[in-house]
Amino acid sequence: MIKRCFFLSLLLPFVASAGMVVPEAIRAPAEQVAKLTVHAVGDQIYQCVLQEYAYTWQAQAPDARLFDMSGQVVGNHYSGPIWEYKEGSRVVGRVVSKLDVDLGASIPWLLVEVVAHHGVGMFSDINYITRVNTRGGLPPSSSCNANHLGSEKRVNYTADYIFYTAR
């Protein structure tokens, strides 16, 4: 029972997003229509790097499972960034715009344009993806310095991803 309640709590933002209006700053073009919405649970992976004479935590990749409304795993999200559906179709995206909704508490909401498709299936005709309802995932609060150079840290995050196709 505890496991079920925990999982249902993870899906609450997902359920709430089903009828939400996506802010204009990250809205897919008007000729696009939502095809699929999934809830992601996983980590944002950061690495301590030296950048322009300063040590900083740099985002490396996501590592998340994608869940449907019934709580079943339907795919994965990982480095690329890549979203892969359970039957093997996958897309590679590039960020078009960002929107800081909960600055200091969670990673930004995004509009992502798909730049490559692989395989045939659910993601074959996806053109855009929005990331909304983010929680967590910000760079680590622990120090990044010469003693930690090259080290990686995982930070938990959740989000909803909406996948769009042409009308």
Describe the structure.
There is one protein chain. This protein is mostly beta strands. The protein has one domain. Helix content is 10%, strand content 54%. It has an eight-stranded antiparallel barrel. Strand 6 and strand 7 (126-136) form a beta hairpin. The protein is globular and about 50 Å long.
Describe how the helices and strands are arranged:
Elements: H1 2-17, E1 32-51, E2 54-67, E3 73-78, E4 82-85, E5 90-99, E6 109-118, E7 126-136, E8 152-166
Antiparallel strand pairs: 1-2, 1-8, 2-3, 3-4, 4-5, 5-6, 6-7, 7-8
From the structure above, extract its key features.
eight-stranded antiparallel barrel, about 170 residues, mainly beta
Distance between the termini: 42 Å
- Structural category: mainly beta
Give the mean pLDDT.
91
Strand content: over 45%
Question: What spatial order of strands do you see in the largest sheet?
Answer: 1-2-3-4-5-6-7-8
Number of helices: 1
- The whole-angstrom Rg is 16 Å
The number of domains: 1
Give the % helix: under 10%
Instruction: Give me the strand/helix succession.
Output: HEEEEEEEE
Unreliable runs, pLDDT <50, ≥5 residues? 1-17
Summarize the structure.
This protein is mainly beta and 167 residues long.
